[in-house]
Amino acid sequence: MRYLLLAFFTLIACSCTSEKTSSVAYFGGEIINPNDSYVVLYKNDEVIDSVELDENNRFFIQLEEGYKEGLYHFVHRPEEQYVLIEKGDSILIRLNTLDFDESLVFTGRGAEKNNFLIDMFLVNEDEEQLVHDYFALEPKEFDKKMDSLRGMKMEQYENLVSNFELSKNAKDIAKASINFPYYDNKEVYPHMHRKTKGLKEIEEIPAGFYDYRKELNYNDSRLSYFRPYLNYLSMHFSNMSYESCMEKCAEEPSVPERSLHFHTHKLKLIDSLVKKEEVRDNLLRNTAYTYLLQDHDNPAGSKEFITTFNTFSEECKFKEDVNNLYTSIQKLQPGNSLPEIALVKPDSSLSSISSELSGENTVFYFWSINQKNHMKRINKKVKSLRKKYPELRFVGININESQERWLHSLKMLGLETENQYRCANFNEISRKFVIRNLNKIIIVNPDGTIIDAFSNIYRSSDFKKVLKTI
């Protein structure tokens, strides 16, 4: 590995003077304060390579002849980011996990386009609060503000393409990193404006507000896993579903049926307008996940939705994933027994979650060593909740693989080991308990039957609601 890295760094040093004639590409770099031992490179959802960091926290990946040019993403758990790799590129990254995105820097051949992508990612993040404030403006004023923000980014884009030779593909993806967050904000605007202003109905949008839709490509397979593109299309199809329903449906559905109704419309629109399988499949999955998780407490609606979904997803590569999610959510309904999972105790012995029930009403919460701020915050929250709700037992489940690092964290946080466990298999617990974020808690009766499996530890209303049933 050491000699390969030396060769790679030599290649980086020569990259500015060499011509792009190589049929292979290289990706490597250094991770400061690593959270994990590995870096995994993906093309779409396919693992291209998984490499272990060396003793200097460096890694090296060679993409052999015949690799696909385009957007990749690399994962150093729990973080990930995009990298655009094209013919002859030799890209080196350096980052510090304490500030993953902000510290990420690309060097070597192919660096300029990737530094532009991470810059646009960070700028869009920084603008979120500003854009939120703009939602209160009237449509024409909001439009001017959005055009101004986009114009500043386009100046940076023009500076990039005038100073560096980029392929058409790289130019398109660079512009996509500007345009789709801009489009997304405009699609969100009518709903956020109504909410911000406390209006009962969505105000009429002036002609020309959505002119960008005329140039929209629903089938850009190069962007099929690019989050700004997918986020925009998802919001766009939500708006189209609403508009279509307001125009064609005889009457507005009742509140309990509204979400099911609109998401069913959305499935039909995606199926009719998106032809590229990868884009279509991702949008169908996104729509299904959103509905099933949002309406997790509506078993009848979920059953109707999954039946409809399956009629549109005969060839969808995520059909099994969506149906597994549906099944897991149904198993987490109140009154069902908590699904069995394997746990590891502080003494390294194996146990099961049913074996650790102690005849008390119990709250299970989840945390990770890799999310240090969350780790400290949630255990501080649990400490205060124990005082507030002494009738409840709080049990922490760590989702990491390293027994040694987990025990070190328990000691550092000053946690008693009596009510702390580590999951034996993250994939198992994530699937069975439908863990999509670590603020989730699961509350069970003394016999292990579920009271609520979708509460949030930071929502006091969830606790008050559940305590009424105990």
Tell me briefly what this model is.
With 470 residues, the chain is an alpha+beta fold. The chain has helices at residues 2-14, 100-103, 111-126, 128-134, 139-163, 168-197, 227-248, 255-273, 277-294, 299-312, 319-331, 372-388, 403-413, 426-433, 460-467; strands at residues 25-32, 38-43, 46-52, 58-63, 70-76, 79-85, 90-96, 105-109, 342-344, 350-352, 362-367, 393-398, 420-423, 440-444, 450-456. It comes from Leptobacterium flavescens.
Question: What count of helical segments does DSSP give?
Answer: 15
Biggest sheet details: 7 strands, mixed
Mean pLDDT: 91
Cα end-to-end separation: 58 Å
What are the low-pLDDT stretches, counting only 5+ consecutive residues below 50? 1-19
Side-by-side strand order of the widest sheet: 10-9-13-12-11-14-15
List key phrases describing it.
470 residues, alpha+beta, Immunoglobulin-like, Glutaredoxin, 3 domains, 7-stranded mixed β-sheet, 4-stranded mixed β-sheet, 15 helices, 15 strands, globular
Fold and architecture overview:
The model is unreliable at 1-19 (pLDDT under 50). The protein is built from 15 helices and 15 strands. It is globular. The strands form three sheets. Strands 10-9-13-12-11-14-15 form a seven-stranded mixed sheet. A four-stranded mixed sheet has the order 4-1-7-8. Strand 2 and strand 3 (46-52) form a beta hairpin. It folds into three domains: 2-110, Sandwich (Immunoglobulin-like), CATH 2.60.40; 122-331, no CATH class; 342-467, Glutaredoxin (3-Layer(aba) Sandwich), CATH 3.40.30. It is α+β, with helices and mostly antiparallel strands and 470 residues long. Helices cover 48% and strands 19% of the residues.
